[in-house]
Here is the input.
Amino acid sequence: MTRIIITGAKGRMGKALSACAPSHSQLQVVGQIDVGDDLSAVIAGGDAVIDFSSHSATLGVAQLCVQHQKALVIGTTGHYDTEVFEIKKLAEKIPMVWASNYSTGVNTLFWLTRKAAEILGPDFDLEVVEMHHRLKRDAPSGTAKSLAEILAQVRHLQYNEAARHGREGIVGERTPGEIGVHSVRGGDVVGDHTVIFANVGERVELTHKASSRDTFANGALRAAAWVVQQKPGIYDMQDVLGLK
Ligand code: NAD
Here is the structure.
């Protein structure tokens, strides 16, 4: 039995994790932490922490996991580069799964995006469009960023230099070295992502639409059961699904 502690337990994803956990017979939720609760008081009783809280909370959670030698699954997105750097350093000491998206469908989209970019080649213009509910705080979504990073990798570009977040005014013609990344917000959309490959005369679009948070929750729970059996290091959902 793997004992898990959820941080961000009162949030949309935290609630989905608690609701889905009973269908994973090898898992038991032993702690539910949100703002005002003390993770250090309960962490000893768990085997793994699943973090779906806030970018500013993850580093502290990871430090406690290292201190108590617990595994960590990170679902939170929107971290600053400095936070990413510090958290990644801690993965040398504990096993950590860190994925911008835990759904099987999106991980298939990651795979397809790489393949399509390789096959279609440099003549196709690349744009990523995402839509999420009106309450989402960070933009672009972690998933859109991952998609753009895959595209940048295939094109031998740096994400930070290539990403073009929206356009306004006389911005000039599109340059071949840019990857458009556009965020749409509204209503209760759980998460839509489209990767557009556009050339003169034809266009390919790859789209994933999530209609329930349970798909992310079940993936993260599966990752928790997997990560406790791994050596220290940083893994993603493709490792969990055996897609590598
Ligand atoms: P939410 O705002 O509904 O919930 C976040 C919860 O975290 C809130 O209850 C908040 O009080 C709590 N929280 C904030 N700071 C905390 C702290 N220091 N300690 C403990 N709890 C704290 O947000 P959400 O929609 O549940 O999403 C949470 C995160 O997960 C976001 O970053 C979102 O982008 C990400 N997300 C990732 C995936 C994925 O598959 N990786 C899927 C959906 C959402």
